[in-house]
Amino acid sequence: VKSTTEWCLLDAKTFRPKRVPESVQELFK
Q: How far apart are CA 4 and CA 10, in angstroms?
């Protein structure tokens, strides 16, 4: 749930699609 919330906030800040490359997801892990 926490990770989902973080991605929602990130999506709201960057205004980018929720789908992101795995390489980018690794940076936020």
A: 10
